[in-house]
Design brief:
Layout: E1 2-8, E2 17-22, E3 25-31, H1 46-60, H2 68-83, E4 97-104, E5 108-114, E6 118-123, E7 130-133, H3 136-141, H4 146-149, H5 156-170, E8 193-198, E9 202-208, H6 210-217, H7 224-234, H8 236-249, E10 265-271
Antiparallel strand pairs: 1-10, 2-3, 3-4, 4-5, 5-8, 6-7, 6-9, 9-10
Helix pairs in contact: 1-2, 6-8, 7-8
Length: 272
Amino acid sequence: MRVTFATQAVPGRPNEDFVGATPDAIVLLDGAGTPPGSESGCVHGVTWYARSLGSTLLAGLAQDGKPLTEILAEGIKAVASLHDFVCDLTHPGSPSATVVMLRRTADTLDFLVLADSVLILDVIGTAEPMVVCDDREAQVGAAHRTAMDALASGSPGHVSAHRAYVETLRDHRNRDGGFWVAAVDPLAAEQALTGTVPAARVRAAALLSDGASRLVDRFRLATWRQTLDLLDDSGPEELIRRVREAERSDPDGSRWPRGKAHDDATAVSCHI
């Protein structure tokens, strides 16, 4: 596989995304940030969590034949053990992350997607790509974001409403009827979307954190097919540049209401 990627943090903040690759595997995580004024129970923070889990998963992918859900469950458990006696892992705001894993074996591509980062597979012979995204958080959140979306991004009211929104969603995290992310409970791995496709049928793949996928799924400024073409022609940096351009054109969220005016953005382009 030939892999290129770009990642860009929100200015003035550490990057809470993680991306890593080996010759046969790719891992992308998007850490769930803690809003100002909200507690997490963890002294390490979201960036530490995303990097610790991401590097652990990347090492686990070297174990040929092990199911991706098992690798993820073991990774969640291993990282929890790193801060179990230092941090309050029972806190509802304990650091968490989305996960996308892609692994090539001799003849197949195995994938796993947990939470709202996106995997796009450019399948040969089909007009539209295969898009894998776990949208359960968005479905849950839709019922709780009206007050936040009505306020201008960056205003004191919006900051407060965003914090309340995030804290409300914590009550639905990693439980039946809610949504699932990598955090403390290894059983969350069983809730991931998984699949296997013949490697010979896939021309290319893209992995996007939701800060990069918003060009399509929130801003509606491109299709998934156009995104694959953009990555192929101009690379991940151009995709992120276009996301930032759109964000700057709507600083108060009046056109595209959103929790974060800017978000960490990571894009990976992979040619199989």
